[in-house]
Design a protein that fits this description.
It is a single chain. This protein is α+β, with helices and mostly antiparallel strands. It contains three helices and two strands. Strands 1-2 form a two-stranded parallel ribbon. Helix 1 links the parallel strand 1 and strand 2. The longest helix has 22 residues. The chain is elongated, with a radius of gyration of 17 Å.
């Protein structure tokens, strides 16, 4: 079996506890693999707003949401082994 080099880890940007990340860290150290963080940015309020009527507001809110999630992921980044 070919050794894996990367571990995709789902992060909940709304939670302080990240059990999947803790497990991924353990596995990455054991197998010397990189960790790739993933967070979903779905917010129902964006789908409830008519994009054609409030396009600029939806884009602005969407960009702010992605920026916030990206900052959260950056704060979870780990130093290399």
């Amino acid at each position: 079996m070919k050794p894996f080099r990367r571990i995709l880890t789902v992060v909940d940007p709304t939670s302080e506890e990240q059990p999947a990340l803790e497990r991924s860290v353990m596995l990455s150290r054991l197998f010397r693999a990189d960790i790739e963080l993933y967070a979903s940015c779905y917010y129902s309020t964006l789908t409830d707003i008519a994009a054609d009527e409030h396009g600029a507001a939806v884009r602005s809110y969407s960009e702010a949401t992605v920026r916030d999630v990206r900052q959260r992921l950056e704060s979870l980044r780990l130093d290399p082994l």
